[in-house]
Amino acid sequence: MSIKHLYADPPLLRHQRVAEIADRLELTPQVLEDKSILFKLIKSSNDPWRKGKEILWLSNNKGAFIKPCPGTRDYLCCGYQILHFAAYCVMDCSYCILQSYFHPPVLRYFINHNDLFLELEQIFQKNSIVRIGTGEFTDSLMWENFSDLTPDLVHRFSSQQNAILELKTKTVNIKKLKLLPHNRKTILSWSLNTPQIISKQERATSSLDARFRAARQCSDWGYPLAFHFDPIFIYPGCEKEYKNVVKELFTHISPSNVVWISLGAFRFMPALQQVVKQRFSESDIVYGEFIPGLDGKMRYFKKLRMDMFKILVEQIKSICPDVLVYLCMEDEQVWNYCFGYSPDQKGGIAAMLDDSARRHCDLV
Description:
8-stranded mixed β-sheet, 5-stranded mixed β-sheet
């Protein structure tokens, strides 16, 4: 991580966790009396998005830590729960929605973990399966250099029977996971893409081969795995390249230990287009056959998405017919075209994922 400045809200300056983070980063925390000063500093930069990656703001989360994925009523959602422990990312993917989501963008880490754990305890008391992930507003394993939250979360999930934690990453920061008694209640998942996309559009992320090797290591440590082909890009030769990624994936990983694989096509809010043009002038990802979707996001024409999804579904199923593959934020027509059924025929996406989690993660 390339953090150069550390700020903390006034009541937290003497907090033990702030002191520990400052010590690991070898930075002196500055008191943040007025957050508008910090925002002005970021906005005044020639590249506010990069500037925000150099500044870490430590604060309390004054809202709920665990919230349902917002989804949209116009597309089928999986019923995921988001654990919001931090925001933004030091990696620099051209397509990252966080560039247009946070205003201004700044690395933020919440330190009131006791409140987080109280919320988790309430979740653990439920009599239904709950799928919780930390990778919505940041990378799940990006914070390992100064944070001990991941081992604590893995430990807490291991001692209950109805919830699973999914850690989604583009890194190989897995060392702290090695000796943890996870009890298969934590799923390690990686975002996957073609080597071309990773090299051109995913700055400062781990290579595809490194991700595969990290996944295999976690599998050897007994963790169940998941993979996400999201976002999928459509470009000349993409079909062959994505099929090759699937082939390579299963030369490293046993299909029997994969809980699920998701597929999602590149989609973006219109505001992101200008950010990409400004920050990634060499990138052509926002130029293509896009139309506004029902959720206001720009999407590839439906037929293009459907054909690409079907190619990948057939490739995955030809190697591992029993693995659960699902689509992220698509409608019934797309599902029927790619799978020959709609999720409602199997109880809904949430039920499909819950069932797979139950079988792979020893849930009740």
